[in-house]
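Structure first, sequence second, as always.
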């Protein structure tokens, strides 16, 4: 099947989904789109997603146990499993009407998959634990709002690996911002708090990141520019990732995101510029303000992606810059702004959003695109830097749409994005079966 035919089919889908809120793909269209394609275009490998039209709007999807499915709260006032079939989506309403309003203007947080038949999510001050096998639900009332900020940090509810014990981030407002505390909660017939630690501050422009990995809680002290480590019992501990970071923090600006690989001896760090001193900015003379503020803005916004590793004693190889504008040691990969890094469930992929703002013009007016390019980096244990050749997943394709949420399918390992009316599914487990096509055009949009 030629790429021109695929472009025609995609154009038809995009127009139809833009004009009909309840548009679904025909069986013939779905059959034609079930093949997997990798396009070799302009020096990049780009992976065409499988496309599924939703029966109605779905903005928030989340990971669930089992094969080939994700979850949503946006149908029939309940929790629904959306299963990917060969030619269509299957909708399974598991439980309903357990709240007067199951989905609405709430703060949601969803735990990563930790069980074969159970999941838990937060809705403001409550947690809902759903048993898929029994098709039952148990609700826990705890404390004030559980805050989930979309786009930057993922683990606001995190399973500790100990039976029924979770880390839950609580936001506590003060006069100027939101104080973050990580609470250790044990869920059973009732819930009980077993302790908490301070995790930083959220303000309008910045939120201090934290992670749980390898049974260690990592928090970031932005004032000291240091990582702190605690066990899940909240006792101070050490970890080589934090030790390497803290040894190299002298010239480090500020931590935006970080992840530690679940099994391999490395992690990643994203650096951004420090906050401005508003008094010094205000003191700049007006006649030189523009000439000085532009380089300051560039330095504040400049991102750098580092790899930290502890499988070598050579300190020069433990903290390695991978890419920053304009340089990169990964051929062809030159993102300027990026976020939302996440491991696949099997740890074999690292997916992130390239949010570099390219400009389009309409009626002599620049329009910033807010539709990021998703990029998947394969993790190779035998690679000197653990990172293989980038696989470009591309953007959402529906006109004027943006990605609303994303989730991982557990089996086969797949990355899924919702734009509200269409689900985009990249099956990464079966990438070896994809047909490779050399294309002179950008079939999958990568910028």
């Amino acid at each position: 099947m030629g790429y021109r035919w695929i472009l025609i089919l995609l154009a038809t889908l995009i127009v139809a989904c833009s004009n009909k809120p309840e548009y679904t793909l025909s069986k013939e269209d779905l059959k034609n789109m079930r093949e997997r394609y990798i396009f070799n275009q302009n020096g990049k490998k780009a992976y065409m997603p499988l496309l599924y039209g939703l029966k109605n709007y779905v903005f928030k999807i989340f990971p669930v146990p089992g094969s080939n499915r994700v979850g949503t709260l946006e149908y029939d006032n309940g929790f629904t499993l959306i299963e990917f079939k060969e030619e269509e989506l299957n909708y399974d309403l598991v439980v309903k009407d357990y709240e007067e309003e199951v989905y609405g203007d709430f703060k949601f947080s969803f735990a990563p998959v930790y069980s074969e038949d159970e999941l838990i999510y937060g809705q403001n001050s409550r947690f809902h634990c759903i048993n898929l096998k029994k098709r039952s639900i148990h609700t826990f009332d705890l404390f004030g709002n559980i805050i989930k900020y979309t786009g930057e940090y993922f683990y606001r509810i995190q399973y500790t690996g100990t039976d029924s014990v979770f880390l839950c981030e609580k936001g506590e407002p003060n006069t100027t911002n939101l104080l973050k505390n990580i609470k250790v909660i044990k869920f059973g017939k009732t819930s009980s708090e077993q302790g908490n630690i301070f995790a930083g501050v959220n303000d309008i422009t910045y939120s201090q990141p934290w992670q749980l990995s390898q049974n260690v809680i990592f928090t970031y002290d932005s004032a000291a520019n240091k990582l702190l480590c605690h066990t899940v019992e909240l006792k101070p501990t050490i970890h080589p990732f934090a030790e390497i970071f803290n040894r190299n923090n002298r010239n480090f600006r500020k931590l935006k995101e970080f992840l530690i690989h679940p099994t391999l001896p490395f992690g990643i760090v994203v650096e951004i510029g420090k906050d401005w001193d508003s008094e010094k900015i205000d003191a700049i003379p007006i006649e030189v303000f523009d000439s000085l503020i532009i380089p300051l803005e560039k330095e504040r916004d400049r991102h750098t992606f580092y790899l930290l590793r502890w499988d070598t004693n050579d300190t020069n190889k433990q903290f390695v810059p991978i890419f920053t504008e304009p340089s990169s040691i990964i051929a062809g990969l030159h993102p300027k702004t990026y976020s939302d890094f996440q491991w696949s469930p099997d740890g074999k992929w690292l997916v992130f959003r390239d949010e570099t703002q390219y400009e389009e013009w309409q009626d002599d007016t620049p329009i910033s695109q807010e539709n990021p390019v998703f990029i998947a980096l394969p993790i190779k244990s035998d690679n000197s830097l653990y990172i293989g050749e980038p696989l470009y997943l591309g953007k959402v394709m529906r006109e004027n749409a943006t990605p609303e949420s994303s989730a991982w399918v557990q089996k086969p390992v797949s990355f899924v994005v919702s734009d509200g009316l269409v689900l985009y599914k990249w099956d990464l487990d079966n990438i070896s079966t994809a047909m490779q096509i050399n294309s002179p055009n950008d079939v999958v949009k990568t910028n």
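Margin note: The first helix runs from residue 3 to 19.
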